[in-house]
Design a protein that fits this description.
InterPro entries: ThiF/MoeB/HesA, ThiF_NAD_FAD-bd, Ubiquitin-activating_enz, UBQ/SUMO-activ_enz_E1-like
Family: Belongs to the ubiquitin-activating E1 family.
CATH class of the largest domain: Alpha Beta
Oligomer: single chain
Organism: Didymodactylos carnosus
GO molecular function, one term: SUMO activating enzyme activity
Order of helices and strands: HHHEHEHHEHEHEEEEEEHHHHHHEEE
GO biological process, one term: protein sumoylation
CATH superfamily of the largest domain: NAD(P)-binding Rossmann-like Domain
Number of domains: 3
Length: 407
Amino acid sequence: MSNKTVERNVNLKSSLMMTFENSADVLETNSMLTDDEATLYDRQIRLWGADAQLKLRQTRLLIINVNSLSIEVCKNLCLAGVAGITIMDNEKVKQSDVDHSLTLTISKENINEYKAECTCKMLQQLNPRVHMLADYQRTIEEIDINYLNSFDFVCIFNHFNYQQILYLNNLCHQTKNNDRHINFFCAATFGLYGYVFKDLGESYDYFSAISLGTETLIKGEGGHPSESQKNEQITKKNERKFITFEKALKTEWRPSKRREIYRSGLTTYTLLKALLAFFEKYQRVPELKTHDIDIPNLLSIIKHLDQTATTSKDIDSSMNDNELNEEMLTDILNDNNAVASIVGGAMSHDIVKALLRSMITPNPLSNTIITQLIHQPSSDSSTAILITTTISALATSSPARLCQYQS
């Protein structure tokens, strides 16, 4: 590593630590919410309480890559009132960014400026209380444990370099930040498809409420339950073990009666693995401008995955010739804002759940969420159905669990 690179890294680290140390000093001297904060966050404080809001105010996140999905997550968490967000992206704004995806934080006046810097400036206007920092000189290879110790969450978006994902995930998986695990999230959207992966560590403690009885009604006029018949609840401490991205991708699919949902999930799952394999082979992601070359190459990779998969029979039934056409594969090269909003909203919610450890929410979701928006034409209109498939990859012996939502 050159002296210039070392000096640049030292300056970046000093700037980052100075910003966060100042933030920590403020948090330490203000262990209670101010009147202004209570007014600003009134609605969410009513939902999860002042203690939970204080935990949010102490949370710092590293966001890697600027795109419609990461901006959606940043917007939600910025409005929620986290302590600080560092956005890491060394690319500059192009005309295609303005035209297609980054309308929330980037305009045509920002062309040739750094995406991270533009995004931080716009997000800062949403909530001036959040410390925003743009890191546009650092690369993923330059990230080390000392750098990650400044954060509670590390989130990487629309990144298909498999080795770099594993590198970051392994750093977080093995690292403790003041006896707290550094939580790792990895997410992407491609066309009408998307996924969210999370690793909350080998030992993740959370709390859940358990009912000790069933509330019954008294016969007669009024029908109100007596005090002795009301439900009683206790809080139980639970533990979950999360696995790495590498192990999650090796999870085997098991037969299920709900094959229609499985097929949708397997389509997305196979496309994800194909995009990772495409990058590993060509050292880039497929693009619209080179789709004449990229689509046949991507199709070849998918067919190869089909032939080598342990569940090739299920994949054959789901990813048939009618679905694997040029139009569908071309669609995954687009950055769809609607899909990013849905996936980003779900991911933001899960980050808050992971932080609060289910103080006011149900149990945390499993390692991987796979999402697909399917257009099913009817006689008079086209109905969009959102199918969300949850892969329960908490252990190799865990069966896959599915949930379906329609809109």
